[in-house]
From TrEMBL:
It is an enzyme of class 2 (transferase). It comes from the Bacteria. Keywords: Cytoplasm, Methyltransferase, Ribonucleoprotein, Ribosomal protein, S-adenosyl-L-methionine, Transferase. This is Ribosomal protein L11 methyltransferase. The keyword Cell inner membrane does not apply. InterPro entries: Ribosomal_L11_MeTrfase_PrmA (IPR050078), Ribosomal_PrmA_MeTrfase (IPR004498), SAM-dependent_MTases_sf (IPR029063). Methylates ribosomal protein L11. It catalyses: L-lysyl-[protein] + 3 S-adenosyl-L-methionine = N(6),N(6),N(6)-trimethyl-L-lysyl-[protein] + 3 S-adenosyl-L-homocysteine + 3 H(+).
């Protein structure tokens, strides 16, 4: 399918109003990008943070009369009176194929490789996880996932029981199993994530060692020697008592999905239940680890 887009110059004061106007005039999607290569941190849940100079992009079907769209935008009350804009056609691409072409095998720690299922593993004798994330989060490219994979690679997992809290694509659960864990329980709020984890477990021939649950279905007596949770700082704090309950005495914990400025507060909060280590950082993100108190 062919597309056409309109790019409109904005500031942080005008961007939201322009977005509303584009939506009301039929845009199929609206995107904000930085006009001055000035990166900002990922917004917190429920928060929208914009650059000082922003380009707002509205995406339309290629058959749309863009002259009429521009005239409608000029009349919209939330639009600046004079706005710079550019209308351009988009090349019709196989976006899924392009993404697949750019997802390469990656090494984490000493032994562990994450390999796209459609590529050959570069180190056949290494611990290789074959991954097709599908609609679920988790390829290893995000710093939070990388931090968790590196932590798992550094553990002695042989025979251990593990919980993957927020399992997504199953990347952490399957990595733990390939590194020697006896059994992993994966929990996620998204049914698509459960299905993605299940398919990736089959692909790696570890499906018999992986149990998957939606939160309401998880066993009430579930406990493990190791728990990893790669979600967000807000849910990690909200779910802290439940997460702590899932880790047996002297068990190990890893938390990720939090920004560096959130790490110290969350570390202090978890010290109610765990002997916490100093945070580990990658780019703007952090990982917390600890050992469950007796």
């Amino acid at each position: 399918m062919a597309w056409i887009q309109i790019r409109i110059d904005a500031t942080h004061e005008t961007a939201e109003g322009i977005s509303d106007a584009l939506s009301e005039t039929g845009a199929l999607s609206v995107t904000f990008i930085d006009a001055k290569d000035d990166p900002i941190l990922e917004p917190l849940p429920g928060e929208t943070r914009l650059w000082g100079e922003t380009i707002v992009i509205g995406l339309f079907d290629a058959l749309t009369d863009m002259d009429m769209v521009v005239e409608q935008l000029k009349l919209w009350p939330t639009m600046p009176k004079d706005f710079n804009h550019k209308v351009e056609a988009l090349e019709d691409k196989d976006w899924e194929r392009e993404w697949m072409d750019n997802f390469h095998p990656m090494q984490f720690g000493r032994r562990l490789w994450i390999c796209p299922s459609w590529r050959e593993a570069p180190e056949p004798d290494a611990v290789n996880v074959l991954l097709d994330p599908g609609l679920a989060f988790g390829t290893g490219t995000h710093p939070t996932t990388a931090l968790c994979l590196e932590w798992l690679d550094g553990l002695e997992l042989n025979g251990k029981q593990v919980v993957d809290f927020g399992c997504g694509s199953g990347i952490l659960a399957i990595a733990a199993l390939k590194l020697g864990a006896a059994h992993v329980t994966g929990i996620d709020i998204d049914p698509q994530a459960i299905e993605s984890s299940r398919e990736n477990a089959r692909r790696n021939k570890v499906e018999n060692k992986l149990s998957l649950y939606l939160p309401d279905d998880q066993p009430s007596d579930l406990k493990a020697e190791i728990l990893v949770a790669n979600i967000l700082a807000g849910p990690l704090k909200e779910l802290a008592p439940l997460i702590a309950e899932r880790v047996q005495a002297a068990g190990k914990l890893a938390l990720s999905g939090l920004l560096q400025e959130q790490a110290d507060e969350l570390k202090t909060y978890y010290e109610q239940w765990f002997e916490m280590d100093e945070p580990a950082h990658k780019e703007d993100w952090s990982r917390l680890t600890g050992i469950r108190k007796s």
